[in-house]
Amino acid sequence: MLTDLPNLLTLSRIAAIPVVVAxxxxxxxxxDLAACVVFSAAAITDYYDGKxxxxxxxxxxxxRMLDPIADKLLVGAALMMLAGxxxxxxxxxxxxxxxLLREILVSGLREYLAGIRVGLPVTPLAKWKTGxxxxxxxxxxxxxxxAAFLHLSLLPVSAIGEAMLWVAAGLTLMTGWDxxxxxxxxxxxxxxxxxxxxxxxx
Length: 202
What we know:
single chain, 6 helices
């Protein structure tokens, strides 16, 4: 049901996107800190919506469809704002590109595999990737301005965020490759099964 708590948490991630974008666009230290808080709260719901769905036995096709969409919208919006507001260094753009391309790749694979009724399970490594990715984006949204606002100007917040983004990009490449190979294996298996089902010519 749409009103089940797990689905409401998932929807809250989507609702948080315009708030994060608006706060980041203000380019003010308190707004940057608020953007970090809102983004982090939204990211945490990614853990709890799945856990609650399992414990409450409220898993649904709607939730399974919406959950990865909400994640990708939140991540994509944050990356676009950081790049558009020039809050990523030149070298920080590369892991951002890798992360965005991987999200597109996995979305395409999920769409294809759903057509042949094959699921693409989330691996433990992918959960680590998500953790580093969300942590990096929240840190980058806070930025050095938030550190100065909190009188922690010696803390290199942006540099820490970009380092975490590089780690997330490395994990992204590994999990993306795993998912791609899983998709190729399923596609190859379907092709072989299709060939075997065709009777030889008389």
